[in-house]
Write the structure tokens for this entry.
Amino acid sequence: MRQTPNQIKKEENNMFLALVLVIIVLMAFQVFSRKTSEVQPETQQIQEETQQPVVTTTISAPVISEKLPPIPLQNDFVTGAWEGNGLTLNNLTLTKYKETLAKDSSDIRLLSNTYQAHLAWSVAGNEIPLKALRDTSLTQNQPATFTVKTKDYELTRTLSLDDHYMFTITDTIKNLGQGALPVRLSGKITRAKDTVEDMRSTVHTGFVALVNQKLEEKRYEDTKDKTVTYTTSNGWLGMTDKYWQTIFIPEDNIPFEITDSQDDINYATTFTEKETLLNAGQTITRKTLLFAGAKELNLINDYMTLYNIPKFDLTIDFGWFYFLTKPFLFILQWLYALVGNMGLAILIFATLLRLALLPVATKSYISMAKMKKVQPQLKELQERYKDNRMQLQQEMMALYKREKINPAGGCLPMFIQIPVFFALYKVLSVSLQMRQAPFFGWIQDLSAPDPSSVFTLFGLIPWPVPSFLNIGILPVIMGLTMYIQQKMTPTPTTDKAQANMFKFMPIIFTFMMGQFAAGLVIYWTWSNLLSIAQQKYIIKKVG
């Protein structure tokens, strides 16, 4: 039914009145809510005061306003300093190692303002600064002590340094207040991106950690778009280079979280303990180890035993063939200590390895010679049964059985030598004794490629040679020995394509080995020479 003008006006008046009432109700509600919120904090405070234990929420860390001097440190292997408050190690030089072979080369600077380790406690989310008890320095025989005391807590830190690269940080924190304190220990290693060594190296460079008895290795670039997090106890974490590393080892049986990350400037790895409520009068102590130094195998093994650090030797990148690489490294180091020259130690090691593999090599050579002898018969069978593969296989197996041939016998030494080669490659890559170690003549650094170049007539022709043509004398000699060895070895195939491929192998390996460490080329060359002598012996012995 259609409404009259009077009815429409009456409805409009009713709507206006309802709107005014709604506004009045909303205003009254806001006023009431404001008054309630003003009273509520007092009620909340009364409720908290009746609870036990009391957590003080007004705690703030003391502020040490004066500029504190750094705490110098020194022993026979390192020099440097901790930041004056004893929280940050940002200055550490390794005095036994040089940057280059130059006479005026400086020592290796491991830690600095752009690469540092920081260990601190926080109370109620505020980091606690420390202050040295007195002017002091940190040496092998003299620890340094730091402390801070407020009405709520007292924290004491003792820094000690052993005779090499291990720092022990012992913290004791006591609750002096009436309520419980939320405390947390965390450590962080940060490193500017421009301080990172070549990440293309076959030796791992980046984050390293032991998580639940498992080694975790992450390249720095693995954290480009994400943060990597682990939870564990009885482990360690840090950053590693080819020869140096910085590792935190938190106290045993204390769970902690590891976080690997990066920002625009730095890479960072952090460990954080779970927050602990420290009751009134309660004291807790934490002992944290910090390794900052060279990756010396014997020393790291000693630390693993002395401090009961699980699998600490895995900070050295032994690769997949750990069961071979670590013993090889021990043997090589023993030979080096015996003869005093790493190059000679490599030659002796290669000789011992060849002698150990001599029985296998003899069987392989005999098997390959027999295979070459029956090649004409095999070719005849292939022609006869080219349309019947099953019959061909049966006839070939019958021939092998009749001639007492193991078709896989010639490959056995190759399968054995592949892990041996890769293990030895790892050994020569990670061994500190190889770094800047001289051999004889022009080889002054066994860890670097042969510096001579046949394409510049050893420097007589000063023209820029592409990197792939920087082939030294050692790789050329290695290629020649490989060619001679190939000529002496029976070829167990009549396939022309395979035969041609084998012919080019010495040339390919010559160019490839030109980019490898001189120590590895010396090993390979000497190993080839031993193989040639070995094959002559086998030929003479078995005919």
About this structure: The chain has two domains: 71-317, 330-380+408-542.
